[in-house]
Amino acid sequence: MRASYLTEFEFRQEMRRDDFEIFYRLDSASSTIALHQHDFYELYCLLSGELEFIVEGCRYVMKPGMLLLIAPGEMHRSVSQDAQQKFERVVLWMSRDFVHSLSSILPRIVQTIAREDQGWNLIVPDDETFSVLHSLLFSLLYEKDLADPDSPFLSRLIVMQLLVHLSRFLSHAPFSSPARQDIRYEATMKVYEYVNQHFKEELTVALLAEQFYMDKNTLTRQFKRIIGLTPGEYIRRKRLENARELIRRGVGAQEAGFQSGFSDYSAFYRAFRQEYGSAPSILSGQKEKTEEARHDA
Fold first, then answer.
1. Which of 31, 142, 252, 276 is at a distance of 20 to 30 A from 268, taking alpha carbons?
2. Per-residue pLDDT for 162 more than 50?
3. What pLDDT score was predicted for residue 291?
4. Looking at residues 7-32, what average pLDDT do you find?
């Protein structure tokens, strides 16, 4: 493949375009990203290497020739047993608005792709289907690299064609179910699910350890191994993600912080700014310059 297709790895998890973005990567860095979510669809196509993916508490073992479809809002991360192993993959991001805008001309595709409550994510196509999907993904990379005046239009058609083939396959072959987990994994995921349900309440590692009859250090170690964050870090991340979504829906910054489990606005403000690089008031469009200056002081 052309070296010019390769995209340098970055930790960015937000789209810069309003339709779709595609990346071709060959490195080991993806497994260093902690559990996260985003507001767009992600189609992850593994070409070489082997790694695990955790999506909403389910574990999937990916091998070359497999794809993973992640819906908006689904918490996920990749896990590698070998920190030095490189993974060749193509990743396609598609905005929710773009996918749903196709409903008038491709209704069956949208119904298939947008099954956000289906709970299964791994796609294992037959060789012929994978060859078609692989070819279309690299056609997109070609147009991205070429970048002539016709490329945006042709790229859009290629994405639509890709979704047609993907939908056609999924309508006959369902998503693959998650692999069975060992006892330690299942115990940790019970804690994970509990945090997802109760993160807005008073919650600490000590309370979790007591609730699930686990040693606090063991809980922290296992949670970090599987989720990618300590329980305390995950609770903070979950609260911040919830607050950011509330602000995007029009809830005031201070109220969003309180509704998401932060009892102190100053702590919420600092955590939000550290996580996202801007004040929560900027996201909501509010003019709170005086308050920002006071917190920055």
1. 31
2. yes
3. 44
4. 84
Dihedral angle over CA of 236, 242, 243, 244, nearest 10: 110
Measuring CA to CA, how many Å separate 125 from each of 4, 67, 111? 28, 8, 19
Q: What's the rounded mean pLDDT across residues 250-254?
A: 91
- Measured CA to CA, the distance from residue 264 to residue 253 in angstroms comes to 12
Tell me how far apart the alpha carbons of residues 206 and 198 are, in angstroms, rounded to a whole number. 15
Domain boundaries, given as residue ranges, for the chain:
3-170, 183-296
Q: What is the DSSP string of 203-259?
A: --HHHHHHHTT--HHHHHHHHHHHHSS-HHHHHHHHHHHHHHHHHHTT--HHHHHHH
Q: What is the CATH number of domain 3-170?
A: 2.60.120.280
CATH annotation of 183-296: 1.10.10.60
DSSP state for residue 279 in the 8-state scheme:
-
Which residue has 């993160």 as its token pair? 199
